[in-house]
Amino acid sequence: MKPPNLFFSILLTGMNAAVRAVVRMGIYVGAKVYFIHEGYQGMVDGGDNIKEATWESVSSMLQVGGTVIGSARCKEFRTHEGRLKAAHNLVQRGITNLCVIGGDGSLTGANLFREEWSGLLNELLEQGLINEEAVSSNSVLHIVGMVGSIDNDFCGTDMTIGTDSALHRIIEVVDAIMTTAQSHQRTFVLEVMGRHCGYLALVSALACGADWVFIPEMPPDDGWEDNMCQKLSENRADKKRLNIIIVAEGAIDSHNKAITPDCIKDLVVRCLGFDTRVTILGHVQRGGTPSAFDRILGSRMGVEAVLALLEASTDTPACVVSLVGNQAVRLPLMECVQMTQEVQKAMDEKKFDEAVRLRGRSFENNLSTYRLLSYHKLDSELPNSSFNVAVLNVGAPAAGMNAAVRSAVRVGITEGHKMFAVNDGFEGFAKGQIKEIKWGDVGGWTGQGGSLLGTKRTLPAKRLAKIAEQMRIHNINALLVIGGFEAFESLLELYEARAHHEEFCVPMCILPATISNNVPGTDHSLGADTSLNAIVETCDRIKQSASGTKRRVFIIETMGGYCGYLATVGGLAAGADTVYIYEEAFDIRDLQVRNVIKAKHIHIDRSVTYILCSARQGRDPDYTIILHPEIALRDEPIVELLSSNVWILCCTEMRTAMKTLPQTSSISCTQRKDAACLTAGRTSSVTCSRSDANATFLPLDVR
Q1: Of 13, 75, 127, 603, which has the highest C-beta tally within 10 A?
Q2: Packing angle, helices 261-272 and 224-237, rounded to 10
Q3: Degrees to nearest 5, angle at CA 318 with 312 and 319
Q4: Residues facing residue 554 across a β-bridge
Q5: 195 vs 285: CA distance, rounded Å
Q6: 275 catalytic, yes or no?
Q7: What is the dihedral of CA 265, 268, 274, 278, to 10 degrees?
Q8: In 10 A of CB 141, how many CB atoms?
Q9: CA distance 637 to 647
């Protein structure tokens, strides 16, 4: 491990979460961290464009979109003379480690800069601008890249920083457009960014259930005009009141002719006579508040980038931090850049299948899924099958349940199966609330929240005979259960009942859907990401409302039961000062904000401190703690500050917390409906008037 006199620099064309993570991780390991403002231009110009970063300089920036330290294209850096100036500016400050956040162009430039580094130092030495000692101490330049691009056009990573936020902007617009389109029976053509990559168009079409999508990697076959118009006409005949067509700005046909929104509009109006409107999103997609996913992704990548620089040796090639599966990994930078360039080469040569393959497995899967869910085969084209599949939701509602039902129904129908929808979970199953569901019945379900089928937490154990009877009546050959932990328990009960009910001896599958993300077998369950976004939005609003007030501490309780996923990851995305979760025990001494705060040395210019608590099952759901603001500004033990009011909304765990107080403390709990006031005194007694707590505790002995 390198000593703590390490230097880092940030060249940013990405997200602020990554900047914050690099700065704080660098400081944590003892490094000196520098900002380079205005990208490569700032590196070439030097001066005030290169400034040392502090822990406080990246506070309250997670919710800010774009880049707070600026970015600029620099023609001068493309020249040898420009890179020589940049090298001189870095050597003057002893910077030999660069963390570069940008696209393939920025990363390629960084690698070229690294390859020329030794030669640049020799030139500076010959010109008398640096001495031998500077050449020796700065002999190696280490580069680590992170990809910031809303197009998600960089090979080697499943997701680039900024892509998820851009998708949020697109889906918000689509949801708003759908209301007016449905009211007026209109067709809308949306153009999204993606000059050379159709990821945004493809995934947004998949997410909103668009009727047609145009992407540069897969131009439509000849005759697409008639096929598209026929599909739009069929959808209207099925009583669908709107049509959505999404076009990537780089969309082309099989003859490399551009497909524009206006071209599509004229075609629809001329052939079908539909009222058609065009919406071009433009740079709206680049702006706005970052999503929870982007904040977490940037934070994880930033930490990994610092670790990569710490572990780099003289022979270590430049690497890029990528997301593969759910893990941050390091890949050779230039291999990824070359693969990215191969995609464009394949497209230029009209090898579109090869271009899709080079985009990666995620892109391929999204494309095949969209095709599967958007094309309704004729009955004569369907395979023969006597397989009946029942789909039901179990447990609490979670965002994404309806999209999952839509996908399951349409895939099943495409395979020739007969699909049945069960209302109200296993309770409805036992009552016979089962009906066949068709392709068009699930149209428009992707953007609907909750559970349109209805869901309940009821387990099947007490209704096994009735459920078995309904399965026999409807000849159910398979079960798909969408839900959380109750779904797991339910299928376990059905599995154990197979010895008594042969109807349960059929394939059964679970699709995890719970906002708590507390079930085994998956890194992410349906609903968790939407819940994280709700937490982050709440925290952002609190920051805005409290920015002009006196110093305050805000406590935000999240759901999660015995799982602290929402609190932990929500705290990471929102920039909480501390997080309290069930998995890590805490006592009253821990109710201090520890990461800020030695008032003698650090100037606090914030008005809000966030503490996220995970709601625990088996205790009062109103549990939360609101600390007096002085506690957040001092480093002394909390028991020395109890002369200030500390409100505890629920004291069922009061006895445990009080064990940490000195014998000279007195705790009184004057219970109103749901609150207790905790004050410090000079006697050694604890009283509590709550009906669910002891009236009087004996003197505490904490020795």
Answers
A1: 13
A2: 60
A3: 90
A4: 610
A5: 14
A6: no
A7: -20
A8: 22
A9: 17
Q: Consecutive 10-residue runs of the chain (703 residues): their mean pLDDT?
A: 47 70 92 91 92 89 85 88 94 92 87 93 92 91 92 92 93 88 86 93 93 94 92 84 92 91 94 92 87 93 94 90 91 92 92 92 92 88 90 95 96 94 96 94 89 94 95 95 95 95 95 93 93 92 74 82 91 88 78 44 42 53 33 33 29 36 39 32 35 32 27
User: What are 84-130's pLDDT values in tens digits?
Assistant: 999 999 999 999 999 998 888 888 899 999 999 999 999 999 999 98
> Residue 481 in 3-state DSSP?
strand
The distance from CA 143 to its chain's CA centroid, rounded to whole angstroms, is 26
DSSP state of 57: G
- Answer yes or no: are the C-beta atoms of 513 and 400 closer than 8 Å: yes
Type of residue at 171: I
Query: Which has the closest alpha carbon to 151: 109, 106, 197, 105?
Result: 197
How would DSSP label each residue in 262-325?
HHHHHHHHHHH---EEEEE-GGGGG-SPPPHHHHHHHHHHHHHHHHHHHH--TTPPPEEEEEET
Question: How far are the Cα atoms of 391, 623, 639 from residue 678, in angstroms, in the given order?
Answer: 51, 14, 10
Dihedral class, residue 383 (left if φ above 0, else alpha if ψ from -120 to 50, else beta) = beta
Looking up tokens 């050449």 gives 135
Calculated CA dihedral for residues 307, 310, 313, 314, nearest 10 degrees: 120
Coil vs helix vs strand at 601: coil
Catalytic residue among 45, 48, 104, 151: 151
